[in-house]
Amino acid sequence: MNNKEVKRVTDYDMQQLIGQVLRYGVLISGLVAIVGGIWYLYQQGSGIPNYTVFHGEGEGYTSLTGIINGLGKGSATEIIQLGVVILIATPIIRIVFSLVAFGLERDKLYVLITMIVLSIILFSTFGGLSI
Amino acid sequence: MTILTFTLILLLGAYLAGLAGSLTGLGGGVVIIPLLTLFFHVDIRYAIGAALVASIATSSGSASAYVKEGITNIRLGMFLEIATTAGAVMGAILAIYTPVNIVAILFGVTLIFSAAMTMRKKHEGLLAEGSKLSYVLKLNSSYPTKDGVVDYKLKNIGGGFSIMTLAGMLSGLLGIGSGALKVLAMDSAMRVPFRVSTTTSNFMVGVTAAASAVVYLQRGYIDPGIAFPVIIGVLAGAFTGSKLLMKIDVKWLKIIFSFAITLIALNMIYNGFNHKF
Q: In sequence order, which residues have a C-beta less than 8 Å from that of residue B138 and are 6 or more positions away?
């Protein structure tokens, strides 16, 4: 098998792999949101929604540790937020998979470009923010 | 109104948003923000959080199919994501210092621009020769059409990259995918074929939104009670849309939708100037 053929196979594989990552990420996130949502409606469905005033930070579901703690207690809002976190993580995981795929293709330029994108996202995730 | 009725109406609204967004290519976020602010009187910051969630859901949900078909230019998307993610982080920081009524006005202006972009004529001619940078960055590629595989070459990479930074900033500030601006950068500046630019733009929206979503999650913009009907509704709507897209002619739908979007936009701008946010 010559070099060109190896590369073509890998490019096709990367497309299929990325497609699968996106599909399953979205599916899992939707399922978690449905479970949390039904539980949330069962507990609070008869309450009155109050979104006219912005409350901001402070709630358990605004930090990763808060979400994990809430999950331990079986709290509905934190289960939903886990679904949101999976949804946000899906495109980021897609980038990690692309990084590996470009590495296997020995495409140094695109390994570098992918690493720049990944660092910008990780910087905004962890850079001086509460975790 | 109880939380249960609120959830059910929002679920239906998110479904229609996902459906219209995927049929017209504008994404789910543009409908979610006016629905929440103008109809439910929800604070615009919760609406932005919901729109971000909707943008990631529509992008990842529909991108999976296009990527597998090989239409999306993954290298082009990856390269331009440097610009959009950096822009999105700047936008999310800018959002702290921007008054909410200014955000509403900016959103309205972006909506009108997006509506106008939907109606414009698209470039059809492909370039035979790309710019030097397009070869260095390996951005020239090919894509499958019904007449076989078509090769294309790109130019003006720098110009496209700059517009992408702006698109990223807007999406970080407003929570929307700003697909119209992304398509403008690729379609008009870099001469990416229309099908490739729409699918690659859609592919990039998820990563761009994810870059600012974590910041917004931590600032409390993403509320679980709003997020879950939005995720489920938008995903179901986008799925129906992608099935329908093969069967119906969306020309009239685009015209009606653009008109409706423009009216909503004017309403948002008017309320923004009157400090009703």
A: A107, A109, A110, B75
